Task: inverse folding
């Protein structure tokens, strides 16, 4: 996701969560006025009202902050994120491939421009929205490698991870393996 889109999404969620929390406060204030601080008096003379009603203002402020944080955490949670799929026009091919099956273990095969081939489990990848050459993906072990002109790949001993530059890739294959619970 681009930085701009992520910033807009964060701002939007923040405004919605704040509106929900303020609406909750207004409902409680309307139903049981004695339980909540009087906003009119607080805005008129915040220093005096804050001193006179310190425990109430502090408790409500902390409570509303906790509710807002809980709502925001729920909105950012994996259940809602799984349902929200990024529009293909704004996502890179890597993002589409690597998020196709959430929760699956992803094995990647990389055919490089010199004819060599490397494979391993996906560890990280560039989440840039453009499919540019200046990005990398990382694989974690076991890492297998087949040199240019060789017919068999071999596991590289004592190699736990490898980085592959998009500039060198000619073909990328992806295998999804379900993770046992």
Result:
């Amino acid at each position: 996701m681009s930085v701009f889109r992520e910033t807009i999404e964060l701002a939007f969620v923040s405004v919605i969560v704040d509106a929900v929390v303020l609406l909750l406060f207004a409902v409680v204030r309307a139903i049981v006025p004695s339980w909540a601080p009087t906003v009119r008096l607080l805005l008129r003379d915040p220093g005096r009202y804050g001193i006179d009603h310190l425990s109430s203002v502090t408790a409500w402020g902390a409570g509303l902050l906790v509710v807002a944080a809980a709502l925001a955490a729920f909105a950012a949670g994996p259940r809602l994120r799984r349902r929200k799929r990024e529009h293909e026009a704004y996502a890179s091919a890597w993002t589409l491939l690597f998020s196709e099956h959430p929760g699956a273990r992803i094995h990647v095969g990389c055919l490089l421009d010199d004819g060599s081939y490397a494979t391993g489990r996906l560890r990280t990848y560039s989440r840039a929205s453009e499919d540019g050459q200046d990005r990398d993906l990382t694989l974690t072990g076991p890492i297998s490698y087949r040199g240019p002109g060789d017919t068999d790949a071999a596991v590289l001993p004592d190699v736990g991870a490898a980085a592959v530059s998009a500039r060198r890739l000619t073909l990328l294959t992806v295998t999804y393996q379900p993770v046992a619970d």
User: Anything to note?
Assistant: The beta strands are 105-112, 117-125, 136-146, 154-155, 161-165, 169-177.
